[in-house]
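I'd like us to work through together how a protein chain folds, taking it slowly. To get us started, please write out a protein record for me. Go ahead whenever you are ready, and we will take it from there:
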Amino acid sequence: MTRVAILGATGYTALELIKILLRNPEVEITALTSRQKDAPHVHAVHPSLHSRIDLNCEDLTPQQVAGRADFVFCALPHGASTAVIPELLAGGCRVIDLSADYRLSDPGVYEEWYGLVHTDPTRLGSTVYGLPELWADRIPQADLVANPGCYTSTSILGLAPLLCQNLIDATGICIDAKSGVSGAGRSPKMTTLYPECNESISAYGVGRHRHTPEIDQVLTDVSGQNVEVVFTPHLVPMDRGILCTMYTRPKTTVAEDDVLDAMREYYKGKPFIRVVDHLPATKDVAYSNFCDMTVRISRGFLIVLCCTDNLIKGAAGVAVQNFNLMAGFEETTGLLPV
């Protein structure tokens, strides 16, 4: 059995991780952590897990976790992961980090956008970015994988094939992104209270959202061009889902069918990418690890539309994809719909 621990087990992403991992008969979840001192049973935190898993959410040290697990999913807040991951790696664990602590290459950029001094900067720039559709060849050997964010993965997956095939300009890309409320996490915030967000849609982080440098960096790395995007996220009154509508300038006159063919060729053999002819909607991918995308051409713009479930393909699902590759399982294990 492959032993797995989940740090930060009380959040929405952790719940999805547990449900997916329980589908793999060769995986045993051996530790769940929480800072709550009373060590609640996991089904007290996530009632849907009643009778499915018998573990308490304990306040464990990294050394205690390393003694119980071979792989660790770190679902801690930004800035908290760096306090435990070096010790987990020293203890022989392999780690999938779902925070932003190891996604960026430059500690100065991390400090600028997150307001934190990085305490493990030597690993920045060498940590594998965990987007299997782009870097499946690097992930199996990695001891630490930086899991992408939900907005970033949706944006990057939609734009990467067009940039890598030199179909669009690398600058002047505008990303209009919309997310369900679960993307803000489970901790209560004024903006996500029901009376505040219901029957309303609002932009936030305009011109300063933390995912901007991550999107720039990853698309620059994968395409070999200096990519710059303008990224504007919006909060939508629904539980889950992301829709990114991305406005780009084509380098030459192209037809929609030719662009769709180029996207299909780029993602050939990638089981969770669906290039579709219709306009995708968040309901099409809800509760799944699929990423649906299409393009339209209008008035000199090549418009990319891309949908994911923010808790699955945007977090827990891609984390399990990374884990499967690292552990030697089929990439789709536990992730395909019944």
